[in-house]
Design a protein that fits this description.
single chain, three-stranded antiparallel beta sheet, two-stranded antiparallel sheet, 11 helices
């Protein structure tokens, strides 16, 4: 077990990561307490990453091809998967949590940005170390149940205008789920879960921890307005379920590391 692995198991490190997401947002215009949730929704609806909608198909097809390559070719596609996930998390951190709004000016969700950026750093570390072992022989059939949930998140069958179900198959390739932390994190984690414990424990743990915190925030927001947002909440359930499961797995000590 590495020193960083031991460090990220500490209760205070986990608490530190959780508290990061509670950092107050930056706003160019002053914001009163009652409007803080409006600020969050303003950022998420007008995030800079939404300017990349023409690239939606690219961010859907690319991960599909890379993950298919992992299951077919194993470690020959390891670097491609690690690099893609790294770039994706840096993209989520910098562009999904910042917006230029009419009411508040420039707004940055500071906690989300820093937390997701740390996730990207753990994936960058994995690119350098290559601890993930995607040998086909390492696949665990007992954990395949995560894949339907991950696919549901990747599909994201949601009509943005009505916030109601939209199971159009074109959404699998054309919507912006590929540019969303909440929809793609279940996908990356499900891959690591299937190859656990032959994966980088720090990458798995920090990604799962961030996913659990953001998933919790999203579900609370949905519960507060359940009448109109219930299907949006359903779309975020894979993030919460898979992240919590991955976090539990990441805190286990593999037999080979047990003292």
């Amino acid at each position: 077990m590495s020193r960083l692995d031991r460090l990220t198991r500490k209760w205070w490190f986990i608490l530190f990561i959780v508290l990061l997401f509670f950092l107050p947002a930056y706003s160019q215009m002053p914001v009163s307490g009652p409007n803080s949730m409006d600020l969050v929704f303003a950022v998420l609806s007008g995030a800079l990453i939404n300017k990349l909608t023409l690239l939606n198909p690219l961010f859907k097809i690319a991960p599909l091809l890379i993950i298919a390559g992992l299951f077919i070719g194993g470690n020959r596609f390891r670097r491609a998967f690690n690099i893609y996930a790294t770039l994706a998390y840096f993209l989520y951190a910098l562009l999904q949590n910042a917006a230029i709004t009419e009411q508040y000016g420039i707004v940055i969700l500071t906690g989300n940005l820093i937390g997701i950026f740390l996730v990207g750093l753990t994936w960058l570390r994995e690119v350098l170390l290559e601890q993930n072992d995607f040998s086909v022989s390492s696949l665990s059939l007992s954990r395949w149940w995560v894949m339907p949930l991950a696919f549901f998140a990747f599909w994201m069958p949601l009509n943005y205008e009505t916030l109601r179900p939209d199971f159009n198959l074109l959404n699998i390739i054309t919507n912006d789920a590929g540019l969303a932390f909440c929809m793609m994190t279940p996908v990356y984690l499900s891959v690591l879960i299937l190859f656990y414990p032959q994966v980088n424990p720090v990458t798995l743990r920090v990604t799962a921890l961030a996913g659990s915190v953001i998933g919790f925030f999203n579900l609370v927001a949905v519960i507060l307005d359940l009448s109109s947002n219930w299907w949006l909440g359903v779309n975020h359930l894979p993030l919460m379920v898979i992240s919590l499961y991955a976090l539990i797995l990441s805190l286990r000590i593999p037999r080979s590391d047990a003292q």
